[in-house]
User: Fold these one by one.
Assistant:
Number 1:
Amino acid sequence: MGYLLVELRQLRYFLTVAEERRFARAAERLHIAPPSLSQQIQALERELRVTLFERTPQRVELTPAGEALMIRARVILAEADRARDEVRAADAGRRDSLSLRVCNMADFVLDGPLHAAALGIPGVEVSVASSPGDDAIEAVRQARADAAIVWCRPPDQRDLEGVVLGAVPFGVVLPQGHPLTAEPTVTVASLRDETVIMFPRAPFAGIWDRAIDHLLPAGSEHGQVVIEPDLLNAPEAMLRAVAGGGGVAPAILGVSEALGIPGVEVRPLNDPLEIDLEVVWRAPAGPSLRAVVDFLLTAVRDPTAMIGPAGRRTRSPA
């Protein structure tokens, strides 16, 4: 079996051309002559035995092989940069830097632990940013983030390593004056004819399916699930829709009450709905990433974190 002789420099050149779609602009950005850049790309194509670009007088377009390489090249270069930074940090005794994406609504649950992580973990500096669930996972896949905290993943998103931090209890939000507010808890069966207000499914397939399957176990009628599209302001937008009489909605117990949206009441479910929060990463996990995961697993035990023990766990970082 032969060995590929692909240099990191060639991958960086390739990505620059893929982003600029013009050899001249890519060469200018890389501070090299256009003929030299073209020769490097041709050498890469010969080594891989594929055509990476369709060239026209106006611009270049990626071939299917080029599209596939672009995804992998980003990951390879990000890992190479990470390895360089970790080695330099170890040699100089400096703190390593990691990026952590946190999906919407998880930041409400983990406010205390995330604040502590951002302040710093011994030897590690953590940069925390919010992101929709599937976008957070994709950022980790593409090496744009080192790890992400996401709601429970559907089966087709379990290609990344991960560990369940804990289970978050959900209740149901009702409009004031709704007959079910007379009870201290709400049965799932009593919701079978209710309109359920939900956030868009696309960025949160795992949590969306888990909530609807629990609240409407017999399935939903046409129009029974209404989408509140304002994901940027969730969960406040969902609560305001409930207050306006649009239906009922699942909500994190403790968070909905703290938001102070008038015209709604929150009740626990007597068939409890608990949804896992996970931290996910690309294998293998380096020492700094393991330190962050261990920190989060300890931090979620803090009473300020609205999260309980996990019912199940995936693999710990190795």
Number 2:
Amino acid sequence: MGNHPVRSVLRGPAAACITLLLALPACSGGDTGASSARTITIGADLPLTGGEGRAGASTLNGVRFFVHGHPTLDGFNITVDARDDPFSPTRDTSRGVQNLQTLIAEPEVMAVIGPFDSNVARAQIPIANRAHLAMVSPGTSSRCLTKEPLLPAALNPARTEITCSAASLPSPASLRPTGVNNFFRLSTTDELQGPAAADYASKQLHLLRVAVITDGEAYGQGLGDSFSARFIRLGGTVVAHEDLDPSKAIDVSAFLQAAKKGGTAGVYFGGTSSNHACAIRSQMASVFGQDSAVPLLGGDGIALDPTCVGDAGATAADIFATVPAADAEHIDSARSIIAAFKTQYGRPEDFGPYTIAAYDATAVVYDALDRAIKASAGNMPARDSVVAVLAATTAFSGATGVFGFDSAGDTTLRLLSIYRPSGPDPEAAWTWVSVVDYSAALPY
């Protein structure tokens, strides 16, 4: 995820030590009775309480489900040390830093699954980098964690790149004091969300003219610019563009009237639900008519969010939003894993959007550990050797498909999902409608 909270179906309280149906250590420091000399621990830093508690708990379930099926590796017992890192509305990263430092102090910890939030990742990566500890995140999407620039020139209608520093973000190089990358992730990155929405708008909704609005913040402007660049490249026209002031209430009625006169058939919004983005959808109804099917498109700042649906009201069904990750329930190779998981875990809330991503993150760590242990003649590998082996991963067969990591640590399986609300009920699950795959070629 980026720096905005995880959305609707991921909400709900969860205990810091999740009670699972598996005979595994559910809390940090759990004693499995195994000799520490022949034990390897996989750490996890995820939100297990608070507003993202359900998201983190269902993600941790993916880690534990894999470990449950593979309790030993090359003569080592595998344990999980899960640390609670609840989402902070003030972007306080101290809990995540403390968790990571605790895990680093445990010599048997060979890798960490997490974090969930890009802001936490910025604080953790340099610390783990100095400790030569691998981190594999199932869900962070900020491009500046791994690559410059924030927005490539080809995704900016002005044809100039926007650097990370221009968005007040640290560069990837500054996060890696050793000069060696130790951070890997299974989600794709935010600069592809706008193009994915443009592809869907052009190729599936058959829109030719759109208007673009952003909330004026770096995340939203990046989405708006990348959508515009891709939509124009596909032959479409952006009839109007406006960057709002996020400190003011949204009122775009005049803008929408001008866009209507320009023949717009859709509106793209770059921003988050916390800025009441989806209030635009209800304003669209007053301009285009209550029965108008003119859609509102956006990114994961609004996707799956009950606040968005609540703000849109009766017009919510005509919202389409991207998420920079695969929807495992619509991937053939994941279906048997999901079925086995749901047999083991009986409650619907135990499974979430990042459960299978975490399963694959754990699986690729196992693969790296296996190769590192063998290279160490069956002994405990050095942490930096695990990092090196992960970096060399090119064609790992996971539940979500075959993937590797590029030189920056990003997944080569670049899938983005598109969802829409199922109706006006804020608590109802959103419906998956499509996937955009940029694995073979980037959209710029």
Number 3:
Amino acid sequence: MDVPLLPGLEESAAPLDPLNPEDQENKKMPRGRRPKATPAPKKVERQEALKNRIVGLAEELSGAGFSDLLTELVPIKPVAPEVVDQKTSARIGHVEETLAVYLQRTSIKDNLSQRPPFDHIADPIYRRLMRDFIVGAQMPEVKIAALRDLSGRIKSLDENDINYSIIDGLQRSWCYSTTVLLALHREKLVSDRCITVEAWDYFRPFIEKLGDPQVATRVLLSRTIRYEIYYNIDLEGLLHYMVTFNTAQRRMSLQVQLEIMRKPLIDEIEAAANITVFRDTHDIETTGKAQKPRDQFAASDIAVAAEAFITNNAQASQKEIAEDLLEKDSGYTATGVDVGDIADVVYMLKRVAQDLHPLMLLIYSDEPGKKFYFSGGGTFLTGFAAACGYVRNRNNMKMLEGALEKLVLLLKQPSEDPLGLDEYQELIKDIKSSRGKMMRRLVYDTFLRFFLGTTTRLEWTDAYRSLSLT
């Protein structure tokens, strides 16, 4: 008895002819549009996902059956008498705790002036470090500061409400947490877009040797680790240690050094001058941008501009400032920059950020090579700040105010190139030796002659000829 087909399905219900090549091809291919494969996460997305898991790791472990290892925190007891650092008066001791307790006591988040983390699962050095820890090796000791409100000095480790900040070892702490997540979640971290397939393939044999997820996680959390504890220090001492220790293996860049050492000054300028400051120590991680947006001011450039202004020295540089601060007995925060100096620096940079820079973006809107001269790099801003500093130091702030107003009026003139930047760009093509030094001096001399009334516009060629004769 034939069963009638439903209306409209007569053709689709027809049997495929095994001798018909077209029918056989149709049998292989599923009907309809193929689903698109989910693209692999970008590095920034993956790092952010992993960071969020690490930040909430202690809470996650508590809810996953490991609360017996996450015991209530008690005051730290060094395993031997502390030593005293004669420079900072800090007391330094060695501590032994389980990894479970360490992960509760410290965090990769909110560490003062820390560098952004590396891509540990792709970096061969950190990959090997995590692999070795999984199989039982000890990591080098992390250095932790015990502080009051992330800056205040505490006298005893028995005090309440202590904040623990990682001085040196943020990357190792990141690796500790990553190994625990690998032990507990394994290949699920790939589907959660926290690690790559290649990373899991690398760690898989070492993780699986520890046992199932519960057993492996307990093995790692029960490991005893050693770290150094620093207390009886203030912000000055903390900055000293951070800069000193973080230059040992992966050398800290000059930009980051200046951000750390000049942090109080940069913070004050940013707030008072209402400048959007980009910090390598913070913004690269939080924004996912590998470089500073060109229309924002770098923290290190602000620090150099402040120095160039106060000393009216066009040759102020990141390297020289950092080395000078490292040699100062007075420390980083006691820079000799008095209240009057800071107020004048704030005024100058405020005019740059709120008046000159927006006009540059507007006038040279179609010329990226020109509109970012104040924010895009240190050379132009440093030379300009030094010229402003000369007017202020040799005359007074009233004259500087008038000079900057004159520059604003020049920018507002009906001209396609009111600052003569075509002329400037042609001239600097010929500078072959000591390029940075010569460019800073050219900017300094050209603006200074304009500010002092020697010229009525920016005479780049005349200033360049004068430099060539010296």
Number 4:
Amino acid sequence: MALPTIRGVLWSLPYLRNAITKRESSWDRTGGNRDYITVKPGDTATLAKIKGPGAIRHIWITISCPDKYYLRKILLRMYWDHENRPSVESPIGDFFGIGHGIAKHYISLPLTMTCDKGFNCYFPMPFFDYAEIEVVNECDTEVRAFYYHVDYELYDKLEDEVGLFHAKWRREKTVAQKTEVNLTGENNYLILYAEGRGHYIGCVLSVHGLRPGWWGEGDDMIFVDGEKWPPSLHGTGTEDYFCSAWGFNREYWGPYHGFPLWGKRSWLGYHTMYRFHLEEPVVFRKSIKVTIEHGHANDRADDISSVAYWYQTEPHIEFTTMPPPEERIPLPEKKSSEVLEEILQEFKKGEVEDYNRYFYYLYAVLEDELRLKEPVVSVLRFTWDLFAKLDKRQKKEVLVDLYTKAISILREQGK
């Protein structure tokens, strides 16, 4: 009987491999139990130097460091085949799947933060001649303990049609646009721009919501091989790109997509989501530009960061540069009362045009922070119906009064 032509994920396991399996790790060379390295501030530690051809198959790390933002201040870099510029460069926490300098349990197929502590990467990372992995401590303190495993294989030969693994972090405080439509994609948030031949395999996207209200109306737009508008791949909303629908109503994580970090229900605060194109990579022959709107037609001004993952032939271009550590740490989360106070000052200065939106902002914050019950929520919805019928001057007066009272209530509760 012939073997089936359709093979599952585990089907390759019975086939014997022509490879040598090896590991680089932080084990105690004295035979003791001090199975970690320390890294002083400003120092670079080399985790692995491997002569190929071969492929890294798994990386595991765990870190003990007193710096509050060590996950943003420690950089992870990887170099293939003696290149001068790293193919992987990212704050170490973001690379493993959660942004904002936060460690949080989740499990996907290629990346995990198991039990908040054990960070794993299963992306295959082939190299023809040489591989080097290093971490750079840009914290204000010593990394007291850095444990790691780098599991890899060595081969007699690597196939010519192999792309090299790349990952890059970037961050942008977006600027809200005032247009009603977006027919160019020019002001979208940029996740990746690459030149060469390869395929894009996904991203981790982290949003710090600086204003209440849903920031996820933005469409993903992926431009392939220098094409002009419209792009080959145009999505229908942020949560749609991350394989949810009608927003996110819970934290979740799965093999290919997830929303493992949900900030406040008013959409203020820190949020992280991921999408991996493991079954449907986006192929490019000359270049690729991966973007996503920040709000509908880019109408949101939030703090966004991302890690893009892709494979390509070398050389690669530097589409973004790594900022210094003080520019990588997350902005502090403000109390909801502080955010409403900022909006109130905008009212008083006459800087607000869309009063309906700011009524919704107030509604979202109150429902979230005060955990309002359905009867009270119903009253707010009824109030919205009345509010919508007011003229602009009346809306401003009502909003100033409502915001003032809401701020007072939230401050009393320390929120």
